[in-house]
Write a structure and sequence with these properties.
By secondary structure, this protein is an alpha/beta fold. Helix content is 54%, strand content 16%. It contains twelve helices and eight strands. The protein has helices at residues 6-16, 26-41, 55-81, 85-113, 148-175, 182-197, 208-224, 244-250, 280-293, 309-315, 328-333, 347-364, and strands at residues 45-54, 118-128, 134-138, 231-236, 257-264, 270-274, 297-301, 319-325. Strands 1-2-4-3-5-8-6-7 form an eight-stranded mixed sheet, sandwiched between helices. Helix 1 crosses helix 12 and helix 7 runs parallel beside helix 12 (347-364). The longest helix has 29 residues, at 85-113. It is elongated, with a radius of gyration of 22 Å. The mean pLDDT is 94.
């Protein structure tokens, strides 16, 4: 196996992250063409597959959900504070049902089906032989007024506030006590909802971590593998707009197995994350690859509020794991102007690539 170096990894990231890459725009197309050329040099057949989707959920659904959560908690809190526990319970259950159903529908069918704010983008698909496993990463980038870590914290706080509100309203219905506590419930709900509501989409981030690092890892794996090893590669678009590219691609074909690279910083252990049904066999193989590469790694369910293409794959029945690396400081940079290649050494990208190379070589043996 050719040695994968941090310097090579950083060069790949810097080349991809020279400018922001909004989905469907020229900078993303330039990056995609460069990746296609690299893949063809390694014996892959490449094809660009266009897809159509609605940008409305990706641009506005998170903000609207934060707004709806704040308004609903205020209504529930007002009724509970005035002693109308039964009304508060009805509003709470109705709000949870409406917000939950809307989020589920928009996050599954709505992104591809909504008739408003339609757009077209392109997934790059490359194959060599008959793939047993697919490598994935998204090419597009975005910026937001709040970093992804603060948004995830806001979502987590909001979930706990809604649970506390449900417990309180049931207690109040049963005993008639607890009205003064509603003031603190509403304050906490507003605090959690504001960063969610502020998650508006912009194009100011060059996306070195998110996700030039993931694309670089895919290309490094391809470069390190023997040409005879079969493999599939998908570089998606519009991940930052509701995982649209991954949803369109995964729903158009039979479920398979995929490793998704997303957000590879230098600090911290590698993280193997999943959503939905636990992909036990793939996780075990990744852990063995980490042992062989002598790289520390952790396995975890994907935290709430953080979406990756792996979520879309799992929703379509795929066995999928997202490989990431980083910590709190990583989350503070993603989706901001500070997500620059100059903040990376490339070590994390190189480690992630080496682990997956070890996995694929083991599969081939």
């Amino acid at each position: 196996m050719p040695r994968i170096t941090a310097a090579d990894a950083l060069a790949r990231v810097a080349d991809l992250a020279r400018a922001p890459r909004p989905a469907g725009e020229a900078a993303e197309a330039v990056a995609r063409a460069s990746c296609a050329s690299t893949l063809r040099e390694r014996g892959f057949s490449t094809v660009e597959i266009p897809f159509s989707y609605s940008t409305l959920p990706g641009r506005w659904a998170t903000s609207l959900t934060g707004f709806a959560s704040i308004v609903a908690l205020m209504l529930v809190g007002a009724q509970g504070y005035e002693g109308h526990a039964t009304r508060a319970l009805i509003i709470l259950i109705s709000s949870l049902a409406a917000i939950g159903w809307s989020a589920w529908w928009i996050g599954t069918a709505g992104i591809l089906r909504l008739p408003w704010a339609r757009a077209t983008s392109v997934n790059l698909v490359a194959t060599r032989g008959t793939p047993r496993l697919w490598l994935m990463a998204h090419l597009d980038s975005k910026s937001q007024p709040v970093p992804i870590g603060l948004r995830a914290l806001g979502i987590t706080v909001s979930v706990f506030v809604w649970l506390a509100a449900l417990v309180l309203v049931l207690l109040q219905v049963g005993t008639g006590h607890g009205a003064p506590v509603w003031l603190w419930i509403v304050v906490a709900g507003v605090a959690g909802g504001l960063p969610v509501m502020a998650s508006l989409v912009g194009s100011a981030s060059p996306g070195a971590l998110d996700n030039a690092s993931g694309v670089a890892a895919v290309l490094l794996v391809v470069g390190a593998l023997a040409p005879a090893i079969p493999l599939g590669v998908v570089l998606t678009s519009a991940e930052e707009l509701g995982l649209a590219g991954a949803r369109a691609w995964s729903q158009s074909r039979k479920a398979a197995t995929a490793i998704n690279f997303d957000g590879l910083d230098d600090a911290g252990p590698l993280r193997f994350s999943w959503s939905g049904k636990r992909p036990g066999d793939l996780l075990d193989r990744l852990q063995r690859g980490a042992v062989l590469a002598r790289v520390p790694a952790r396995v975890q369910r994907l935290p709430p509020g953080i979406l990756t293409d792996g979520v879309a794959l799992a929703g379509a029945g795929w066995s999928a794991v997202t490989v990431s690396k980083g910590g709190v400081r990583t989350l503070s940079r993603i989706h901001t102007r500070r997500d620059q290649a100059t903040a990376l050494s490339g070590a994390g990208v190189a480690q992630a690539a080496e682990v997956v190379v070890r996995l694929l070589e083991e599969l081939e043996r």
